[in-house]
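Here comes just one.
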Amino acid sequence: MKIKRAAVFLIVACFLAAFAGCGSGDKMENGYYTAEMSDFSHGWKEYVCIYVKNDKIISAEFNAKDPSGFIKAWDNEYMRDMKAGTGNYPNKYTREYVEQLMEGQKDTEVDTLSGATHSGGNFAKLIEAAIGQAQKGDSSAAVVPAN
């Protein structure tokens, strides 16, 4: 009789363990999570880094770097040229995309900004990948294929 009880207990325990995580697959683990594009585009590789605490994105950074690691938003010449042509520039649109993320949290859709539509599309893909890493608790950088 003890063997039957033990077997029933074991089966119930396995069943409960198997379904304990159901419905929580979208919960983000605390930590820093990064995603970056697989390739450079026009000399820049875009990336995003988020910090998650208690299933909430507390802070985020979106930017691009050149092969030497120089940050696009710091490039004043690039800013002047882009601003003159489109009225937008990296230090402006990266902050606006992050602001949209902070308001929407796990909503990866963003309203793209004039002069930065390609970056807006990449931002949405990068955020989706970073949130996926956070949901798995995987702190390795996700690499997003460029399309």
About this structure: Strands lie at 31-37, 45-53, 56-65, 142-144. The mean pLDDT is 83. The radius of gyration is 21 Å. The longest helix spans residues 117-136.
